[in-house]
Write a structure and sequence with these properties.
The complex is a heterodimer of chains A (266) and B (293). With 266 residues, chain A is α/β, with parallel strands linked by helices. Chain A has one domain: Rossmann fold. Chain A contains 8 helices and 12 strands. In chain A, helix 4 (113-125) packs across helix 5. Chain A is globular. Chain B is mostly helical. Chain B has one domain: ABC transporter involved in vitamin B12 uptake, BtuC (Orthogonal Bundle). Chain B is 78% helix and 0% strand. Chain B has 13 helices and no strands. Chain B has helices at residues 3-8, 11-45, 58-72, 76-99, 106-130, 136-145, 153-172, 174-179, 184-188, 194-216, 222-234, 239-262, 270-292. Chain B is globular. Classes of the chains: A alpha/beta (266), B mainly alpha (293).
């Protein structure tokens, strides 16, 4: 099929499986949100999908197994945004974004002027215009996430994997980030898979939601298509009792709002 | 020697300069440059500001090799060759041991380096035990303390050529070295074949260090100190900083050699002065990190 197909994925650490026999499909042009409690296997799933983590089963992008590709080819097709960037040395923000061009460059080649302009444009799109020469380490965690998103936006692949990209962002930037991802998916007819902690954000910005529980699929839902009662029941399986409502904001747009119901401590 | 007479073209001074000092100065500048550049590479690839070129046991291997050369061979060139072989053997052993772990983690190379360092130290101790205390043991100790004394252009030219080639390749690989500073998964998803690239870059850096230490003996702290001096000046890790790390290393080693030749009536080991500069800086660095934390 065209798009993403994960079949029989088993992955974990030290012989202990965290993801247990997971399968799902996602056609091109769609965003999949992964929701799950802490330790449910969201990060493990994303890492094994792109081949960083050894696993059994396959993750096919347009019929090609990503984990069997050499890193350069895999990076041309797929971009991965970790929870926190592991860059430990002082670098200007622009240099960090330019790293995104590496799969397209020869071993000793350096980014050209067009790539620099593209990187500056990506920085402006995520709200970091004018901060090209700032030190990456001087940025707050949220701004670092936006910088890494800009690095991802310059990639020419057709799959984005983002691991809790919103965890350090404020409300406005969370929505901006998801809008940028949607724009990227639309422009390239690509696919994006995001693990998220905010169910409200996932319900309003993702086409499909994969609910992970103990490393397995607790359910798959499509906001707007799946009946609200069914969505509520599935989400309650992860977060405990929740109330799901459809609200209209002042612009007339309908949005999902999920409230966590109070539970007696006893 | 006098600078005035040298500039005036005094024949004797010129002969002394070309025969005795030029090779020594060139070896000092180029050796310091290579140690500084290698330090930059090690600190970036291992993502550790305290990493230095001897982290994978090269210096210990070179020491054991030199000790074997002093005991079983004759002549300075043979000792240089033996120490180079020791350094090379230590490097190959470290990288081969690290290669046994298929995960390609950078920590594995450090652990392999610690094991090879211990092995080389044991070999060195055994060699020292069999050495004649009057002549051979003193020579081994003097070599371990490092000195540019006796380095001639003829003996150094081969080592310096290999060293220059490694440094040049590292300079052109700067972008890949920066990519290795990211976490392994992140670097892989930026298109870097992490395991092979890390091994290749470390091989080049270590080969350059091996070429230097086999000529000069052990020189402490230059590889650690020079990249920090460069970063203090530029506040980043771009190509200019890598180059500046090399220049800082060259200046440090030349300055230390100048002091080694002039401070006392007899020539002192150069590592005394590089350590005198390096150790307080290391303490300052640690205190600074604790304050920032």
């Amino acid at each position: 099929m065209n798009g993403l197909s994960v079949q029989g994925l088993i992955a974990g650490y030290g012989g202990e499986p965290v993801i247990r026999d997971l399968s799902f499909e996602l056609p091109r042009g769609r965003i999949l949100g992964i929701l799950g409690a802490n330790g449910s296997g969201k990060t493990t799933l994303l890492k094994s999908m792109c081949g960083i983590l050894p696993h059994q089963g396959v993750c096919l992008l347009d019929g090609t197994d990503l984990s069997r590709m050499p890193p350069r080819k895999a990076a041309l097709l797929c971009s991965y945004v970790p929870q926190r960037s592991g860059i430990t040395i002082d670098l200007p923000v622009l240099e960090v974004v330019l790293m995104g061009f590496n799969p397209r460059l020869g071993l000793l080649e350096i980014p050209n002027a067009a790539m620099r302009a593209q990187a500056q444009e990506a920085l402006a799109r995520v709200g970091l215009g004018g901060r090209e020469n700032d030190s990456f380490h001087s940025l707050s965690e949220g701004l670092k996430q936006l910088c890494i998103l800009a690095r991802t936006l310059v990639s020419e692949g057709s799959l984005l994997l983002l691991d809790e990209p919103e965890s350090a962002l404020d409300l406005r930037h969370r929505h901006k980030l998801l809008e940028q991802v949607r724009r990227w998916v639309r422009q390239r007819n690509g696919t994006a898979v995001l693990s998220l902690h905010d169910p409200g954000l996932a319900l309003n910005h993702c086409d499909r939601l994969l609910l992970l529980k103990n490393g397995g699929c607790h359910g798959m839902l499509c906001p707007g298509e799946t009946p609200p009662e069914e969505m509520e029941a599935l989400l309650a399986g992860i977060y405990g009792a929740v109330s799901l409502r459809r609200c209209t904001d002042r612009t007339g747009r309908q949005q999902w709002v999920m409230l966590k119901e109070w539970e007696d401590e006893e | 020697m006098s600078a005035e007479k040298l500039l005036a073209g005094d024949a004797m001074q010129l002969q002394v300069f070309w025969r005795l000092r030029f090779g020594r100065m060139l070896a000092g500048a180029a050796g310091g440059f290579a140690l500084g550049m290698a330090g930059f590479v090690y600190q970036t690839v291992f993502r550790n500001p305290l990493a230095s070129p001897d982290i994978i046991g090269v210096s210990s291997g070179a020491s054991a090799g030199a000790a074997a050369g002093i005991l079983f061979l004759s002549g300075a060139a043979a000792v240089t060759g033996a120490s180079f072989a020791g350094a090379l053997a230590a490097m190959i052993l470290s990288l081969a041991l690290a290669g046994l772990d298929r995960s390609g983690r950078s920590g594995t190379i450090v652990l392999a380096g610690v094991a090879v360092h211990s092995l080389a130290q044991t070999a060195l101790m055994c060699l020292k035990l069999t050495a004649d205390p009057e002549r051979e043991l003193a020579s081994i100790e003097y070599w371990i303390m490092g000195s540019l004394n006796g380095v001639s252009l003829q003996a150094a030219v081969g080592n310096l050529a290999v060293c220059a080639l490694c440094v040049l390749l590292l300079f052109f690989l700067h972008r890949q070295i920066l990519l290795l500073s990211a976490e392994e998964g992140e670097a892989r998803m930026l298109g870097v074949p992490v395991t092979w690239m890390r091994l290749g870059v470390l091989l080049l850096a270590t080969l350059a260090v091996s070429c230097v230490v086999s000529l000069t003996g052990l020189i402490s702290f230059v590889g650690l100190l020079a990249p920090h001096i460069a970063r203090l000046l530029t506040r980043n890790n771009q190509k200019g900083t890598m180059l500046l790390s090399g220049l800082a290393g060259g200046v440090l080693l030349l300055a230390a050699d100048l002091l080694a030749r002039t401070v006392a009536a007899t020539e002192l080991p150069v590592s005394i002065f590089t350590s005198l500069l390096g150790a307080p800086y290391l303490v300052w660095l640690l205190v600074g990190r604790r304050r920032r934390a």
